[in-house]
Amino acid sequence: MGILFIVLIAGILIYRSFAKEKELTRYTATFLDVFDTRTEIVGFAVNKEKFAEDAQLIKDRLIYYNQLYDIYNDYPGVNNIKTINDNAGIAPVEVDPEIIALLEFSIDTYYETDGAVNIALGSVLSLWHRQREIGIADPERAKLPDADALKEASHHTDITGIIIDKEKSTVYLSDPEMSLDVGSTGKGYAVQRVMEYAREKGLNNVLLSLGGNISCIGTRIDGSNFRLGIQNPDVYSDEQYIEMVDINDGECVVSSGDYQRFYEVDGVRYCHIIDPDTLYPSDEFAAVSVITDDSGKADSYSTALYTMSLDEGMAFVKERDNVEAMWVMHDGEKIYSDNFKEKYVK
After folding, report:
1. pLDDT tens per residue across span 216-228
2. Which part of the chain has CATH 1.10.3980.10?
3. Cα–Cα–Cα angle for 299, 304, 310, nearest 5°?
4. Which CATH superfamily is domain 6-69+202-344 in?
5. What is the C-alpha separation between 343 and 322, in angstroms, rounded?
6. DSSP string of 78-126?
7. How far is Cα of residue 25 from the mean position of the Cα atoms in its chain?
8. Could you say which DSSP state residue 305 is in?
9. 267: left (phi over 0), alpha (psi -120 to 50) or beta
10. 343 CB contacts (<8 Å, ≥6 apart)?
11. What is the phi/psi pair of residue 209, to 5°?
């Protein structure tokens, strides 16, 4: 889900002599109107007009995916995930191939993570979302979802009920009570596709952060890696960053944690990351960060690892090439996968 923000270091270095020779300057664009989160683009260009053009190309592509993967809003002329949910048990919905690609990726991820990431969990997640919204708006009314309602909703989360017809480009939910929620995969997958598109269009030396889903093309203009600060999940700490990491061309960083989207009931914090086995929020870790070469995988893996035990998560990472992770415990202890520090902590 990638909700825990990874903060871009404000002082990303530019070697002035190099920049002058190449006549490139660092620019930053920030906006809040895509995927309901903060987006930041860092790039280098000959002037602000060229950077604005490049940033707009990225933003327009993000808007395209935002509309397709939205589960809450309708858009004129667009059949999106909400449209599929609205037609559950009624009729197949003809959709953009990019929706089918996301769903196929998410289904593969479901089986890869033994169900830890399940986009068919929408009926359960909606109950938690409703109570979280109430609890945030009025803490005195904060309460947990009804246990029986959660159990009933869990009967409508069978991922095999997603029927995809690639020839007709349609998606049908066979269970009328099923709903899709792509929060665990959608943003990361969108970032990956957007950066692939930007690369095809010739963009280079670009860093994109979509709500903490961070990916880069190339390096800084001096050839050095992009340096990022992973935000400390302990909001009361004087230390803003829990770790500093360097990433290179095509690498991605995504974190999942318990302090960005949560509410409290009787003094207990309940975050938005729900364990499909218990139907309740996971609480073993304060945060999990994943670095790999695919933002969609980094997003889904960070969610999966957050719901797994530490031993399970360590084994999961060890079985995969080019995947490293860092777990942050509630007492601030950091636990790393085998090569995390060697590869990324400079």
Report:
1. 999 999 999 999 9
2. 81-173
3. 125
4. ApbE-like domains (3.10.520.10)
5. 10
6. B--HHHHHHTTTT--EE--HHHHHHHHHHHHHHHHTTTSS-TT-HHHHH
7. 29
8. H
9. left
10. 291, 324
11. -120, 115
Average pLDDT over the chain, rounded to an integer: 92
* DSSP string over 184-230: TTHHHHHHHHHHHHHHHTT--SEEEEETTEEEEES--TTSPPEEEEE
| pTM confidence score | 0.91
Q: What's the rounded Cα separation, in Å, for the pair 205 and 87? A: 42
Quote the DSSP letter at residue 236: T
Q: What percent of the chain has pLDDT over 70?
A: 94
For residues 77 and 152, the answer to whether their CB atoms sit within 8 Å is no
> CA-based angle 70:72:73, to the nearest 5?
80
Q: Reply yes or no on domain 81-173 having CATH 1.10.3980.10.
A: yes
* Helix, strand or coil, per DSSP, at residue 3: coil
Summarised one tens digit per residue, pLDDT across range 114-124 is 999 999 999 99
